[in-house]
């Protein structure tokens, strides 16, 4: 919430609007059955052996023209090797990604029950699968990894039937790239598949390829074919002729041998050469000539069918004994394959079918051909196999009937993602048929919208609207307006989107309450984008009423999620949490809507963080991350990682927070989801600021606030970090300008958290400027928001980072009852103040840990060591070596355990923890260190000094001097302190020198001498300090003081070091006393 400066508005968005139930495409199960091996099929041991030797490859490609025995080879390999496999025979109708995926999941599910079910569910609830390819394929891969440990081969036969532009290749590329090592893909195709990663896989030797050259029959294999299958032999001359003219093409060999015996091969080849006709066509024609008239008619007419079932053949050819004819074709090896025995489905060899279709067109008229197609169409219409029915209707030129069927089934095709096929059908119809039917125009527009062609899409939606309007069909016009409004919304034209949506609602009245509910959700999205939250709530509640009354369960879920998103964004977190709990309690909701469930989990976690319930936030975050990985949903994973970053930032673990933010940012690079980027960037800026890396924080924020950034709310939120930095640098006017500018934005829009944070910052500012009236005013408003919105966690976070806030609140008696509860929670959280400059002191919740509470000096010393090395893991051996090296092993171990027990009792059980093999200070604990504050003041002072702003630099140096109560851990006498002690002392002395010089230059000699004397308190041998004091005495006319100071220097150097002052010091002294 803190970083939720742009709520997950993608929820209130037509792109994730409630979806109708997506139907699975008709699955023709024969396409998933491996063809049977015919008895007279020649074995290819040479090629099968090559396949067996390369089973470790990620991908096996078998690429050759038609008739080279690609499928036969795969079948022989599978029957001999018998590995677990999935077979899928593709055809042109499978070119839509959704159809391909449903077939693939069906095939995988046959191999192992339940495998692919999660992916199937996801497919059924995604509106536009092509926008979520990695999510879908990643989900399938994850299922395979989780559930399938054994080897598996996925065979994709005839992949060339899928057009190159199909999204299937993008999906396959991702799928093959990320498959586990136990899964392999075998592709048979006439052309090399257009997979982007293929070249890289080849370079890594992850691919094995068989080409036409490999699949050609050798002379030895042809001899074997003649001897074993055709029971004959050839002389060497005839054999050479056969090899020469067929080039080892298996189908060509089969055609020749089928047509003629071995004794007439030479004569047949000569006749073929004289005919100047392609080899297959010549011999197929010879075979056809020898068939009976009735059988020839059957062959020609049935060639219109892709798959041959007896009843389909009967419907087209009107031949009653189709079953017997098909059986005899297989028995006679007439290029017919039995694909499935139950039911009996056959298929002609591709080349043979193409030849038959061509011959049919020569013997029947165009009208007769159309009638045959109509017979096939009627058969498939009766069977409700729509894709085949429409194919034959188009071929029969029955365009009006085609259009009527498409009108009925088009919506399912759009929602199930089979848009390529639908678009192909629409393009096959005459323009006048499509333009006369507005429903078809809407389908075409939706397809173009899915493809991102918004201008063309808009044109078709507007055409459809005009036709609907002209015919008085108000519900149709309303649907067209709904889609036009969606495009306007997508383009950020929110006011026009609202006007169009309202027009659509007025048209509907009570005729289509489902569409009205969708329009209300979309209208709410547009209002949300204009920050009119009151209208968003009113509109969504109207939609909820319709969903309840007319029972639209899926739309109800989406509308509730939208309402929760609104409450979440506007700070009504308890109401939002109630809705999220209601949704997430349903297993069906999570199962059926995983992307939306991830958002609900993340938003729930943010609400728990806002309330300070860290442990409650863990579970939803873990579930969101797990679910995001399961379905490979990068947007969801990025969002969950960003909220996890918020978790660690609020827990004070800034390194872990930055780690999660960076992971989220990396995932979001390609998606460029703005709302996630806003969370990440705001969180990272806060981390840098809270770590005290002010320069880095300022640079980071300025890099985010570029000219391209147009989101006013995000800019105002991020600017708060710049205001904090200005406040830390005592640039009060600049800080006030930033805070007030952001305040004006937050008054108009954005979550209540931003307003609360802004009021705290303004209270801080006015406290620094001693304007108690304004400080009290903003403090009251901040507390009021925290109490009303239950921002307990955020309030505790603010107080932990700035403990004086609690003092102000109590002094002003602001809401005592509420603050008492908060104070108790802060006390339980053990806010620690660690003082290391001077004697080592620890205060827990404002109470000093006394020597009596430490029990022993050793325990106190070990505590000092652990706090000094707070960013490290300190091993047990390290502590034993430093503190107990003089003891025996058992006693040393006992004393260490005892000391650690004393420390935990003194500072709190949860402060000192054991992790990763050692001890450390809990990164989630609220701890402040005076050394950090000291260094921060020095760094800011140095920055101002570099900028020649001496006044501001001196202010910071004076604060640093005030913090420096003594040398680093001056009451801890262990050797490990010395280096740090010298480091901090050197910085302190440098600051004192600069202060002495500054006040000397301003003529404030008493002040200057004060800082030089402070230097001598730390190091009495510092000649620079003695010289500074002598110069000050000289300026006020105190010659005696100059002499005395010089004598002190001479005495201390001579008596204690046996040295004299430096020549430069003597020269200065002589000049000053003259």
Automatic annotation (TrEMBL):
Keywords: TPR repeat. Residues 929-1073 form the Bacterial transcriptional activator domain. Pfam families: AAA_22 (PF13401), BTAD (PF03704), TPR_MalT (PF17874), WHD_MalT (PF25873). TPR repeats lie at residues 638-671, 989-1022. The keyword Iron does not apply. The keyword Protein biosynthesis does not apply. Signal peptide: none annotated. GO terms for molecular function: ATP hydrolysis activity. PANTHER family: TRANSCRIPTIONAL REGULATOR REDD-RELATED. This is Tetratricopeptide repeat protein. It comes from candidate division WOR-3 bacterium.
């Amino acid at each position: 919430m803190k970083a939720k400066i742009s709520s997950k508005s993608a929820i209130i968005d037509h792109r994730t609007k409630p979806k109708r139930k997506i139907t699975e495409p008709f699955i023709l199960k024969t396409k998933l059955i491996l063809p049977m091996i015919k008895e007279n099929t020649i074995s290819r041991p040479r090629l099968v052996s090559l396949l067996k030797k390369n089973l470790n490859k990620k991908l096996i490609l078998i690429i050759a023209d038609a008739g080279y025995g690609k499928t036969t080879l795969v079948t022989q390999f599978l029957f001999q090797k018998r590995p677990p496999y999935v077979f899928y025979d593709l055809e042109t109708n499978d070119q839509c990604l959704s159809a391909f995926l449903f077939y693939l999941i069906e095939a995988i599910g046959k191999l192992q029950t339940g495998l692919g079910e999660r992916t199937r569910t996801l497919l059924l609830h995604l509106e536009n699968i092509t926008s979520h390819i990695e999510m879908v394929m990643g989900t399938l891969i994850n299922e395979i990894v989780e559930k399938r440990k054994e080897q598996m081969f996925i065979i994709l036969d005839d992949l060339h039937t899928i057009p190159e532009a199909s999204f299937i290749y993008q999906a396959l590329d991702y799928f093959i790239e990320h498959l586990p090592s136990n899964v392999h893909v075998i592709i048979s195709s006439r052309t090399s598949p257009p997979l982007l990663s293929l070249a890289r896989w080849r370079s890594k030797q992850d691919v094995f390829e068989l080409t036409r050259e490999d699949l050609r029959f050798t002379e030895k294999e042809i001899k074997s074919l003649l001897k074993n299958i055709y029971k004959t032999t050839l002389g060497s001359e005839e054999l050479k002729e056969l090899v020469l003219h067929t080039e080892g093409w298996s189908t060509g060999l089969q055609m020749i041998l089928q047509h003629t015996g071995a004794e007439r091969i030479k004569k047949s080849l000569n006749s073929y050469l004289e005919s100047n006709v392609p080899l297959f066509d010549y011999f197929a024609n010879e075979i056809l000539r020898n068939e009976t008239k009735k059988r020839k008619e059957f062959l020609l007419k049935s060639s219109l069918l892709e798959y041959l079932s007896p009843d389909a053949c009967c419907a087209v050819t009107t031949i009653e004994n189709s079953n017997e004819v098909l059986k005899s074709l297989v028995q006679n090896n007439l290029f017919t394959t039995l694909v499935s025995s139950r039911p009996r489905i056959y298929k002609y060899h591709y080349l043979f079918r193409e030849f038959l279709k061509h011959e049919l067109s020569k013997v029947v008229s165009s009208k007769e051909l159309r009638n045959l197609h109509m017979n096939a169409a009627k058969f498939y219409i009766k069977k409700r196999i729509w894709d085949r029915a429409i194919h034959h209707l188009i071929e029969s030129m029955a365009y009006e009937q085609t259009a009527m069927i498409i009108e009925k089934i088009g919506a399912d095709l759009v929602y199930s993602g089979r848009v390529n096929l639908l678009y192909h059908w629409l393009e096959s119809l005459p323009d006048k048929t499509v333009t006369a039917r507005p429903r078809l125009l809407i389908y075409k527009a939706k397809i173009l919208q899915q493809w991102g062609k918004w201008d063309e899409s808009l044109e078709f939606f507007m055409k459809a609207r005009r036709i609907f309007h002209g015919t008085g069909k108000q519900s149709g016009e309303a649907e067209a307006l709904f889609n036009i409004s969606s495009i306007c919304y997508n383009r950020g034209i929110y006011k026009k989107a609202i006007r169009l949506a309202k027009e659509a609602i007025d048209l509907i009245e009570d005729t289509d309450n489902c569409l009205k509910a969708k329009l209300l959700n979309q209208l709410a999205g547009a209002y949300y984008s204009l920050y009119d939250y009151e209208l968003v709530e009113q509109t969504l509640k109207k939609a909820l009423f319709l969903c309840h009354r007319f029972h639209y369960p899926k739309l109800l879920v989406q509308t509730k999620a939208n309402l929760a998103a609104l409450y979440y964004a506007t700070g009504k977190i308890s109401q939002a949490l109630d809705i999220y709990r209601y949704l997430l309690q349903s297993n069906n909701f999570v199962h059926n809507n995983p992307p939306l469930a991830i958002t609900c989990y993340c938003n729930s976690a943010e609400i728990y963080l806002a309330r300070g319930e860290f442990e409650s936030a863990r579970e939803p975050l873990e579930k969101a991350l797990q679910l995001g990985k399961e379905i490979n949903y990068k947007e969801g994973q990025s969002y969950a990682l960003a909220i996890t970053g918020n978790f660690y930032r609020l827990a004070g673990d800034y390194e872990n927070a930055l780690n999660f933010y960076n992971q989220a940012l990396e995932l979001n690079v390609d998606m460029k989801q703005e709302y996630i980027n806003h969370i990440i960037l705001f969180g990272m800026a806060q981390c840098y600021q809270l770590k005290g890396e002010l320069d880095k924080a300022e640079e980071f924020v300025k890099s985010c606030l570029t000219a391209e950034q147009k989101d006013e709310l995000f800019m105002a939120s991020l600017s708060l970090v710049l205001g904090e930095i200005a406040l830390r640098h005592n640039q009060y006017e600049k800080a006030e300008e930033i805070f007030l500018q952001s305040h004006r934005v937050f008054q108009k829009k954005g979550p209540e958290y931003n307003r609360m944070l802004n009021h705290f910052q303004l209270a801080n500012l006015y406290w620094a400027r001693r304007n108690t009236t304004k400080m009290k005013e903003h403090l009251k408003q901040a507390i009021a928001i925290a109490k009303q919105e239950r921002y307990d966690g955020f309030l505790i976070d603010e107080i932990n980072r700035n403990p004086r806030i609690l003092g102000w609140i109590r002094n002003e008696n602001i809401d005592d009852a509420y603050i008492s509860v908060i104070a108790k929670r802060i006390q339980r959280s053990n806010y620690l103040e660690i003082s290391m400059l001077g004697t080592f002191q620890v205060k827990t919740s404002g109470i000093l840990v006394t020597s009596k509470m430490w029990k022993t000096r050793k325990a106190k010393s070990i505590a000092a060591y652990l706090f000094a090395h707070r960013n490290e893991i300190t091993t047990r051996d390290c502590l034993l070596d430093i503190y107990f090296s003089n003891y025996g092993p058992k006693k040393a171990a006992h004393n260490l355990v005892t000391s650690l027990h004393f420390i935990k009792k003194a500072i709190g059980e949860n402060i000192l923890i054991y992790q990763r093999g050692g001890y450390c200070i809990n990164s989630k604990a609220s701890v402040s260190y005076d050394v950090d504050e000291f260094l921060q003041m020095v760094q800011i002072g140095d920055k101002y000094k570099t900028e020649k702003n001496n006044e501001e630099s001196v202010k910071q140096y004076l604060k640093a001097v005030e913090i420096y109560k003594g040398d680093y851990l001056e009451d801890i006498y262990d050797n490990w302190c010395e280096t740090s002690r010298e480091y901090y002392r050197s910085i302190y002395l440098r600051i004192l020198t600069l202060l002495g010089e500054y006040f000397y230059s301003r003529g404030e000699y008493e002040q200057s001498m004060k800082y030089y004397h402070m230097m001598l308190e730390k190091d009495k041998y510092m000649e620079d300090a003695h010289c500074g004091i002598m110069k000050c005495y000289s300026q006020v006319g105190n010659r005696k003081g100059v002499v005395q100071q010089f004598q002190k220097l001479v005495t201390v150097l001579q008596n204690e070091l046996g040295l004299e002052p430096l020549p430069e010091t003597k020269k200065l002294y002589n000049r000053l006393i003259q």
